[in-house]
Amino acid sequence: MKKKEIKKLTKQQMLENIEKLKKDLFNFRFQKVNGQVKSPSKISETKKNIARLKTLVEVKNA
């Protein structure tokens, strides 16, 4: 998710995306432990997207 895409979202949509990404990250971790992960870079990409969304949610709250 790019910064431009994130800025277009409402606060509620950002919070929903954070929850979805957290679930994805949880599943990626299980896949990694079981050796089933197809793209290990998805884990770090998902973490970064969560951080971006959380940052912009905080900015909108201020």
> Which value, in Å, is the CA radius of gyration?
13 Å
CATH architecture: Orthogonal Bundle
- The whole-number mean of residue pLDDT values reads 91
Largest sheet: none
What distance separates the N and C termini?
23 Å
Number of domains: 1
Shape: elongated
Helical stretch count?
A: 3
Strand content: under 5%
Number of strands: 0
Order of helix and strand elements from N to C terminus = HHH
CATH topology: Helix Hairpins
**CATH hierarchy class name:** Mainly Alpha
User: Structural class, from secondary structure content?
Assistant: mainly alpha
Low-confidence segments, given as residue ranges, are none
Explain the overall architecture:
This protein is mainly α. It is built from 3 helices and no strands. The protein has a single domain, classed as Helix Hairpins. Helix 2 runs antiparallel to helix 3. The longest helix is centred in the middle third of the chain and has 24 residues.
